Amino acid sequence: MINDGVLPDPSIISCDIFFYLCVKKMDKKNTKNEKNENDVKKKYEDEENEKKKIIKKEEEEDNKTKKNVNDTHVDNNNNSGGGKKAQWYVLLSPKFQNYLQLLETPVQTTTVTEALLRDPLFRCFNREAVAFADLIRDLKKNINTLQKIGEEMGNATAPQRALIGQLLKETIPKMFKRYIVPEMGFTEFIADLSKRITLMNSVMKSPKYLKNDGVWLGGLMSPEAWITATRQSVAQTKKVSLGDLTLVLQIDITTTADDCFVIKGLVVEGAMFKEGKLSPAVSVSSSVPPSRIRWVTHQEGKDLNIDNMMGIPVYLNNQRKELVFTALIAAPENVPHSVWFQRGIALILWDKKAEA
Prior knowledge:
Layout: H1 15-70, H2 87-102, H3 114-117, H4 120-152, H5 158-168, H6 186-205, E1 215-216, H7 223-238, E2 246-250, E3 260-264, E4 267-269, E5 272-274, E6 277-279, E7 285-287, E8 291-296, H8 298-303, E9 310-317, E10 323-329, H9 337-342, E11 346-350
Parallel strand pairs: 1-3, 9-11
Antiparallel strand pairs: 2-8, 3-8, 4-7, 4-11, 5-6, 9-10
Helix pairs in contact: 1-5, 2-4, 4-6, 4-7
């Protein structure tokens, strides 16, 4: 008896039969290989078809946006007043008015002097003010240009049409992303920027740059630069090196001191603060009362018992991609630090729900 797939000993069968069995086995192997190749080919074709569908869908969306943008209805020779405004302008015109109103207040800047340049906090806030002023200028310039094109029914250039398309989609153009922006639409971006301008003007008018009144760290372009500036300022005052200072965050304490700076607008996730003390969370996130950061020397740290404090991360926003700094806070002695870490505890500088 001849088993399928197993060749018998050639000494017990004729050469013709043995040759026939060899050919039959090779045919089966080739058939199997062809089946595998067909499966791979079919999988590849399915993937390519899926990609084509996605590309086609994206092209249809782009064409739809371009149609809205290019539908300008311009008639420069029509002086009878029967000209029709572009569809994109009809949609964006009310928003333009809102944008310009929110950006109406200019950013306050100060004349730079040699004495002011010796202050780390002034250098930090001056950079912020200049950067915000440049951003506001560019925003107003582009919005006014698009408004003029729409009002006079003029022709937009290719870059201007691209900008119109992004604004119709509520997308923030890259040219205006001068700092890390959380996920939001362009209208929300302008509203948030208006709050940041209010912050900068308050800071530049304050003799001590809101040191005692509280700075909304999430409203700065570079909050980490402010942290560095406060450290440099305290190092100058205490006449110590930067490495001799440690940052401690004291919750719900706003009393003033040379080595302390009040911050506000923070949100905590994975826990909550009740009467200034760390407690288990009853919600995903909660607001943190105005608190102060304090830069302490090694000896001052011993007096505060910082060895038993817990270091928690402070992120720019709730996406937790940008770590700004790590702060030491007082934690309950009867709860291991690992419990809080398992809860994913973290502080957030910018949050939609937080009050600046």
